[in-house]
Amino acid sequence: MQFTSVSSELSSQDRSASCPGLKHGDLLSNASAHVQNYQLSARRSHKSPILLGHLATEQLQPGLQLHMVDATIAQPFGFEAELEPCLKVSIVLRGQTRLSYGTRNLDMGPGFGRREGRGASVANVIALNEREGFSQQAREGDIRRSLTLSLSPDWLEQQGLNSEEVMRFSASHLKTLEWQLPEAIHLLADQLFAYTARDAASKLVREGFALSLAGGLVSRINSCGSEITRGGADSSRRGQRLVELLESGEADLLSMAQIGDRLGMSAATLQRHARNTLGMSLNRYLRTRRLEKAYRALASQQMSIAEAALLAGYGHAANFTTAFRRQFGICPTELNGH
């Protein structure tokens, strides 16, 4: 696992200029291992800090890369680089920024969401089907907390996530998508910055989050199938009806047979539409949705772990804890506190 991290001694409450900070060489060393032709320009001496805080880029698996920034900009700077083909999903939790991929500019951060109030929980997705230039400018005093996950074509194929919809989206160079994040993933993204250490436990949390984010992204792209020209209008309508039922929450307490009866589909037809539309089996989708409901309940201190286990459909807390940790990378007790 390749991991490049540079941090200054800086708390979220005290981003003081007296901190040594991250200098020109620190940023170059972090970027050079992960992108091509990286060029950094800063107005002041290379000995002056550029960032105050934490920056890390990590190859979690071959083809699965996570980049995290939690810092204050100490001086104006800009950079350019070249990126290899991949899908990129970026989440800006604090601050605002503009990222430029070739001729495409993406404004990100709270306040930039397509709908008012959405910016903080919107992820920006872009497809790079060929090597492409990437640039960014930063202003002194800006605060940035963000993360970007990159998924290579090989990684998607190895994981069996290269559905027809994903391949079509990935093949459209510079195609973008605004994704309204599930609440559980949005909360996890912010909490991930408490796990930036290099120890094995923190690495496991980061990888668990990355896999959850990747799975959610693929599901989102697959669910857009009805917005893309697809063979068979009836098939698209059935898939859309399934999505509408699932998103309404009515299916959360229904059995597979009851869902099939509601939609007028056999079990085999129902599973086929689930895989085509959601990118996963219906059982897996419902299990993930129930776990996300349990996550929200625990995060808001609304119920005990035993109650959350029942909400998620688990009769034993131990089985619930195992599934919860596999899905989110943390134990229920870390949210509930007891």
General description of the model:
About 8% of the residues have low confidence. This protein is 39% helix and 26% strand. By secondary structure, it is α+β, with helices and mostly antiparallel strands. Helix 9 packs antiparallel against helix 10. The chain contains twelve helices and twelve strands. A hairpin with a 2-residue loop joins strand 7 and strand 8. This is AraC family transcriptional regulator. Keywords: Transcription, Transcription regulation.
The second-level CATH architecture of the largest domain is Sandwich
Q: CATH topology of the largest domain, anyone?
A: Jelly Rolls
Structural class: alpha+beta
Helical proportion? 25-40%
Uncertain spans, ≥5 residues at pLDDT below 50? 8-19, 113-119, 226-232
Radius of gyration: 21 Å
Overall 3D form: globular
The domain tally reads: 3
The tally of beta strands, per DSSP, is 12
Domain HTH araC/xylS-type: 240-338
Biased composition (Polar residues): 1-16
InterPro entries: Homeodomain-like_sf (IPR009057), HTH_AraC (IPR018060), PchR_regulatory_protein (IPR053142)
GO molecular function, one term: DNA-binding transcription factor activity
Can you describe this structure in just a few lines?
It is built from 12 helices and 12 strands. It has 338 residues and is an alpha+beta fold. It is globular.
